[in-house]
Design goal:
The chain has 368 residues and is an alpha/beta fold. It has helices at 160-167, 184-187, 212-220, 259-270, 280-291, 329-338, 340-352, and strands at 33-38, 49-52, 65-69, 72-73, 77-81, 87-92, 111-121, 130-133, 137-144, 149-156, 198-200, 224-231, 253-257, 275-278, 299-303, 318-322, 363-367.
Length: 368
Amino acid sequence: MTNAADFQLASYTFPLPQTQIAQFPPEIRGTSRLMVMHRDPERSRPLCEHSDFSQICRFLPKGALLVANNSRVLQARLFGQRKTGGKVEFLLLTPFPLLNKEPGSTASAPSQAKACGLLRSNARLHPGETYTFGNDLRITIDQVENFGRCQVTLTWFGDLAAIFAKQGHIPLPPYIRRADSPMDASRYQTVYAKRDKTGSVAAPTAGLHFTEAIRNELEKSGISWTEITLYVGYGTFSPVREDDIRRHQMHSEYVEISEDTAQALRKAKAEGRPIIAVGTTSVRALEGMMAKGQGIMPFQGTTDIFLYPGKTFQLVDGLITNFHLPGSSLLMLVSALTGRERLLAAYQEAIHQGYRFFSYGDCMLIVP
């Protein structure tokens, strides 16, 4: 049951000590703390249990199917120069699969593609300006939009992915107040991220807790695993600004769901086995697919689905997720699964118990 407060942005705020915003991952992957909570309030006595992520097999429902996002974070932040010698910073927002080469690109000539990105410079940005990023990449502004967002043309020689891998930096979230380091190149990726699925500008962070050993234990315990791809966009960090959250315009992200994954989902549903999403991006992919009205089918396209209390879940039964920002669309999504008041009570317990929050923080398991 929802109430009027569930639709008010002010209802999703809570005080969070800055010291509990994780600036680094745990020293050893898989050693994060784990809070376990049931969707059904009648089964939550007490409200939640405390454990650590290495014990997650103990709490997952028998025969569950986990659905994880295998997208890989692109080293999408580049530092270059203006013609005057001034510095410029660029963050690519368009996923690689949507970068279509323009006609005329050949192996011997430079390649070109239209893209969207964030540009930052000490000087004003002007359409038509071109910036250089090393010897093999130039970026020309086509259109300047709000908040540094620009439509641009990329011009490059060779392999664009290799250029970003060589020159680029991991785009850490804005609440991690430090520059990226070599450590982030591995720790801000899941162990199952696919190189041919490179293009996210943020990690599907619930998956950062998994190790190969934990995945092997899941398999031995009869827990199934399948994967989707959702290229996480920078919009995941965009705050909800509407006082009535129902007026919020959700950002759009590109999704790929294969026939193998669709078959695994249909089989789990037919056998009555719970489907547990690994992260809110997996929720958006699955529920976005269902919102198209075609059932559980292979899917390629975008989703701008916005889930908040009162919205129903057609496919997802449970969720593995990190602890999210106050007032964020991600907090509202999880609230739709558990109920807002119960979730915020669990968050207060997490703060009291010293849990670490956000991308490099601790984990929450919501079971049916």
